[in-house]
Amino acid sequence: MIQLLGPAEVRELADRLGVAPTKKLGQNFVIDANTVRRIVRIADVRPGERVVEVGPGLGSLTLGLLEAGASVVAVELDGRLAAELPATAAACGLEDAGRLQVVHEDALRITELPDPVRLVANLPYNVSVPVLLHFLERFRSIRSGVVMVQAEVGERIAAAPGSKIYGSPSVKAAWWGDFRVAGRVSRQVFWPVPNVDSVLVAFERHAAPLAGEDERRRTFALVDAAFGQRRKMLRQALAEPMGGADAAVRALEAAGVDPTERGERLAAADFLAIARTGTADGPG
């Protein structure tokens, strides 16, 4: 039986380790066991599954995942927290130490993991989108997941074309899967209490990728250009990556997209169609 952490246990652990949550690392520790179990339930974590967690901190969500019977790979940047997590899990009732693997590393630099099937995490607010996209790109074994992020960011990730908050993160997330806001989270379940609201974003990966890696890179370059100048028409916003305004117009028309349209109206598949007609290049 795994015992989850409450406010007293979280503060005791932090005091003992000399950990003061920092804005630089985006640390806000969850102190409410009911919220932990809610996240695990929404993520539909099953016994025996391998789950990757980013930024486990003091272990609140880690223990909830272990309680559900999952094997957890926890990626933690803070060396003190990474070193303590196995001891915390053991003290809270984890009998099979093999069900928890702690990786002390920057999540954005991780390139190898033992094939996780779900991503479940309270992502550090300052790097939430880059981390999410990195893990979806790098670890194709991840089929689904739930991440807790700043409300404004989560709503943008899950936004649909045509929305005022639809942007580059929305398109890039939609490339990999279907995303939705699965619930809101009270500020009071965190220590320290953040000055922003949080949401849970759930996702299911597409059964098959929209395209290969080269086309993804070209598509994402167009997405970045379109939303880097989101007030401009696509014929103007895409002129530079497509070799000029005339070339951009030809590519847009060949893809069946109105050159006077703006990027916020296009889905990921539309940007892919444009990339296939032009010569856009760029980083992913």
How are the secondary structure elements laid out?
Layout: H1 7-17, E1 29-30, H2 33-43, E2 50-54, H3 60-67, E3 71-76, H4 79-91, E4 100-104, E5 118-122, H5 128-138, E6 144-150, H6 151-157, H7 168-176, E7 177-185, E8 190-191, E9 198-205, H8 213-228, H9 234-237, H10 245-254, H11 268-277
Parallel strand pairs: 2-3, 2-5, 3-4, 5-6
Antiparallel strand pairs: 1-8, 6-9, 7-9
Helix pairs in contact: 2-3, 5-7, 7-8, 8-11, 10-11
Jot down its keywords:
single chain, alpha/beta, 39% helix, 9 strands, Rossmann fold, 284 residues, two-stranded antiparallel ribbon, Helicase, Ruva Protein, domain 3
Describe this structure as you would to a colleague:
The chain is α/β, with parallel strands linked by helices and 284 residues long. The chain has two domains: 199 residues, Vaccinia Virus protein VP39 (Rossmann fold, 3-Layer(aba) Sandwich); 65 residues, Helicase, Ruva Protein, domain 3, CATH 1.10.8. The chain has eleven helices and nine strands. The chain has a seven-stranded mixed β-sheet, with helices on both faces. The chain has a two-stranded antiparallel sheet with strand order 1-8. Strand 2, helix 3 and strand 3 form a beta-alpha-beta unit. The longest helix is centred in the C-terminal third of the chain and has 16 residues. The protein is elongated, with a radius of gyration of 21 Å. The protein starts with 6 loop residues before the first helix and ends in a 7-residue tail after the last helix.
